[in-house]
Amino acid sequence: MDLSENAKLLHSRMVALPSSTLFGQEDLQKFLNTTKSADLLEAAQELINKKLLKLVKQGDELKFQATSMSEASKITSMSEDEAMIYSYIEASGREGIWTKTLKAKTNLHQHIVVRCLKSLEGQRYIKSIKSVKHPTRKIYMLYNLQPSIEVTGGPWFTDSELDTEFIDSLLKVVWRFIASKSYPTVFQAPSPNVNIVQASFPTTHNGFASLSSIVDFIANANITTVDLAINDVRSLCEVLVYDDKIEPIEHMIDSYKVTWSSILEAGYGRDYENPSNEAFVSPKLKSLAAPKHFSIFDSYSVIDSALADDKDLVYFDSWIYE
Questions:
Q1: Which of 135, 130, 11 is nearest to 65 (CA)?
Q2: Where are the annotated coiled coils located (predicted)?
Q3: Rounded to whole angstroms, what are the CA distances from 167 to 239, 254, 259?
Q4: Which residues are within 8 A (CB) of 180 and not within 5 positions of it... i.e. 6 or more apart?
């Protein structure tokens, strides 16, 4: 594009910063190294005419925002109506804008709005999206943007529909991972070298499943192409807690272990509740698991009272009835 030296200088310095940056009049004067408003207005108007600069209202102030050469070339190729509709769609960001709102803002006839939208969509400048909140509305946004979570519903929605199959499969994956960190041998077939008396980790164990470890496991195992944030995984864990499949660890933050009832419900651990099974219980483990009958009178010793001082002796009857 043919631009004056001042316009080129101003634009080059503005686009060197992030595209979302908004500039005030003082910023532009610094870029041009001038205090003359006339010089600034001349350069700014030139850029506005070439679609390389646009005015943005921020509160009660008017700010300037630079547009890239490619974006400006795109806009100049549009008709006046298309450019106006495109500007409103661009301003809507990742939320998108409803066609009815577009019609009201542009004050254009319905068939003109529809024609412009079809043209812009055909050139892949904009795209139609579905909203979870408003599934019947036709909403448009810029082609290169991704809809916000408020629009899509987050990772749990596919085409604006709650993906229950995806959620259920993730719940199973998360539960099994937490179970593997709660009971070391629960998914193994019982054998003589497996201690059925100690199927769970001791209370001093610190390797229970944490939220961050679950997130890492899902990401590293390539279970899903959907990026799950830690709050998404927390939501899954909350569902499992509500279903009594897992429980939070009291002395640890954001860590969980599975409930034994959920292990049994999933079809595991039943053999561990049958310690009399000769097929896998070794004699040593059998003796440990056997009921114990203990009486203090089976283990006692006596001392010769002649060898002890009376004041050191406590007689059983007087002690027990004290």
A1: 11
A2: none
A3: 10, 20, 20
A4: 186, 187
- One-letter identity of residue 301: S
Q: Which of 56, 54, 58 is nearest to 67 (CA)?
A: 54
Q: What radius of gyration do the chain's Cα atoms show?
A: 36
CA distance 95 to 149: 9
Contact (CB, 8 A) for 185 and 198 = no
Q: Which run of H or E residues covers position 34?
A: none
What is the percent of the chain where pLDDT is above 90? 21
The neighbour count for residue 35, using CB atoms within 10 Å, is: 10
Under a CB-based contact definition with an 8 Å cutoff, are residues 136 and 122 in contact? no
Could you report the per-residue pLDDT of 115-126, keeping only the tens digit for each?
A: 999 999 998 899
φ/ψ region of 163 (left if φ > 0, alpha if ψ in -120 to 50, else beta) reads beta
For residues 249 and 208, is the Cβ–Cβ distance under 8 A? yes
Domains of the chain: 1-68 (1.10.10.10), 78-159 (1.10.10.10), 163-273 (1.10.10.10)
Phi and psi of 182, rounded to 5°? -100, -40
Predicted pLDDT of residue 307: 62
Compute the distance between CA of residue 125 and CA of residue 109 in angstroms, rounded to an integer: 21
Confidence of residue 203 (pLDDT cuts 50, 70, 90): low
Q: 251, 252, 256, 249: which is closest to 233 by C-alpha?
A: 256
DSSP state of 54: E
